[in-house]
Design goal:
Elements: H1 3-22, H2 27-34, E1 38-42, E2 46-51, H3 54-63, H4 65-76, E3 81-86, H5 108-117, H6 136-147, E4 156-159, H7 166-180, E5 186-190, H8 191-203, H9 207-215, E6 219-223, H10 232-247, E7 251-256, H11 268-274, E8 278-281, H12 287-301, H13 307-316, H14 321-338, H15 344-360, H16 365-376, H17 381-384, H18 390-406, H19 411-417, H20 423-439, H21 441-455
Parallel strand pairs: 2-3, 4-7, 4-8, 5-6, 6-7
Antiparallel strand pairs: 1-2
Helix pairs in contact: 1-4, 6-7, 8-9, 12-13, 12-14, 14-15, 16-18, 18-20, 19-20, 20-21
Bound molecules: adenosine-5'-diphosphate and magnesium ion.
Length: about 450
């Protein structure tokens, strides 16, 4: 191929990938982060994407690699390593330099590569984690475990809302251990991945291998354990994995969006094991910590963002650090592309939907469950449990109805949050309550009352 052909081939290939992406990420995300991308190099093992600046690279790496990898896989019929090149002076890379036979010194690049190979985000370290009153206990526990695995808290179970840094801390533990203990066997995975691999292993007759992989570890980091809810065989399997590791004095760390006792449809023997070690909660950071997080992040991006803009962001975005970072990225990206301080109107515009989302998401499903359970005087655990006498089933349906009305969660997500029920159950509950509200004044006023209280 001559140069023009190559160019056409690359831009067509990117178009294919972009079309794929459009169907998996929201149009807002696509427009903001993928629209400007160009594919500048395509090799058998890797490809290079040109992005306008570092901020794109970091933000995509931290938030959108899943869909991007999937799109690449679909279009190129095989996985490639995805590289980024920044700015207009990012030329098409030439042939790879000849590698020297000597082992290279451990440069920061190779540390980064190694970290990524294990699935750890190299930026998610203890050094980069800002500690404040609402997360210091959890952060200290994670540090202690990273310094003394299986000696202090086993298992370590910590929980809190979305975007509060749970995965960050798990990666920090993993990377600290990798750096300080040569040859240590660590695995990080979500409970969903555990379930999927387990099902795979059953189907392909490779259970022995699967068990060996997870039962011979020194450290098991298992994220978002709440997704084991309702999955009986996976729970059984995890129970044995847990016991083998625990009896062998191996470290287990788990995270969840709620405490063990509130994960619905989780076997009691697992609940009690999860509570054997230390269980700790993290809350959204208060305004000082939010400001500190923004300062640190802005400094690491090398963009100078005026203090009052950081203060504005910290004031307005309160519940989710990922969203907070998202706001900063937009402003920083604007500043680095256009130079100078954006006007107040511009900032409003850049942040509009994030701030709306913040307001909308102010109610989460846990609050709904808790409030409804209180109101009907049933246990919070019944929201996610299997029991179905009428005095429990009805409040649960109201809570599902409210979750659908007051949050942006999908039916599937709501089903998961109610102890792994399927989306049809949620849909049915929603219809039923709507019907009952239209023909029963008392029910209508109760649901309205709860809804008002929760939205305030
Ligand atoms: P979770 O797993 O709890 O949903 P993540 O660990 O994915 O949250 O964190 C979301 C984002 O916020 C990540 O980019 C993470 O680095 C960042 N973050 C969260 N808390 C902090 C903190 N205290 N200091 C620095 N960064 C944080
Ligand atoms: Mg997480």
């Amino acid at each position: 191929m001559d140069n023009t052909d190559t160019h056409t081939h690359l831009s067509l290939t990117w178009k294919g990938i972009a079309d794929e992406l459009r169907s998996t990420v929201s149009s807002d995300i696509f427009e903001r982060w993928f629209r400007e991308i160009e594919l500048i190099d395509l090799a058998p093992e890797h490809l290079t994407l040109r992005v306008p600046n570092d901020i794109y690279k970091y933000w995509i790496e931290d938030n959108h690699m899943g869909p991007l990898r999937a799109a690449v896989l679909m279009v190129l019929k095989g996985a490639r390593e995805i590289r980024f090149a920044c700015g207009s002076n990012a030329n098409v890379p030439g042939p790879a330099p000849v590698r020297s036979p000597e082992p290279e010194p451990v440069a920061s690049e190779s540390v980064e590569e190694r970290a990524l190979a294990n699935g750890f985000n190299p930026r998610n370290t203890f050094e980069n984690f800002v500690v404040g009153p609402t997360n210091e206990f959890v952060a200290a526990a994670c540090r202690a475990v990273a310094d003394n695995p299986s000696k202090v808290y086993n298992p370590l179970f910590f929980y809190g809302g979305v975007g509060l840094g749970k995965t960050h801390l798990m990666f920090a533990i993993g990377q600290h251990l990798q750096a300080t203990r040569k040859g240590i066997k660590i695995a990080y995975l979500t409970s969903e991945k555990f379930t999927n691999e387990f099902i795979d292993a059953i189907q392909t007759g490779t259970l022995v291998k699967f068990r060996k992989r997870y039962r011979q570890l020194d450290v098991l980091l298992i994220d978002d354990i709440q997704f084991l809810a309702g999955k009986e065989r996976s729970q059984e399997e995890f129970f044995h994995t847990f016991n083998t590791l625990f009896d062998g004095h191996k470290q287990i760390v788990m995270t969840s969006d709620r405490p063990p006792s509130e994960i619905g449809n989780l076997e009691p023997r697992l609940v009690s094991r999860f509570e054997w070690g230390l269980t700790a909660e993290m809350q959204p950071p208060e305004v000082e910590t939010r400001t500190a997080i923004l300062q640190k992040k802005a400094a690491s991006l090398g963009v100078s963002v005026p203090k009052e803009i950081l203060a504005y962001l910290a004031e307005r975005i309160r519940t989710n650090v990922r969203r907070l970072e998202g706001g900063l990225m937009r402003v920083a990206s604007y500043i680095s592309l256009n130079g100078g301080r954006p006007s107040d109107e511009r900032i409003e515009m850049l942040l509009k939907d994030i701030i709306q989302e913040e307001a909308r998401r102010a109610v989460n499903v846990e609050q709904i469950q808790k409030r409804v359970a209180e109101h009907f005087d049933i246990r919070n655990a019944d929201m996610t449990g299997k029991r179905r006498p009428k005095n429990i089933a009805f409040p649960r349906q109201i809570a599902m109805y409210l979750a659908r009305e007051l949050t942006k969660m999908s039916l599937v997500e709501i089903g998961e949050a109610f102890g792994g029920r399927d989306h049809g159950t949620v849909l049915h509950a929603h219809r039923l309550i709507k019907e009952r509200m239209s023909d029963d004044d008392k029910i209508r006023s109760v649901v309205r009352f709860l809804s008002d209280q929760l939205s305030r």
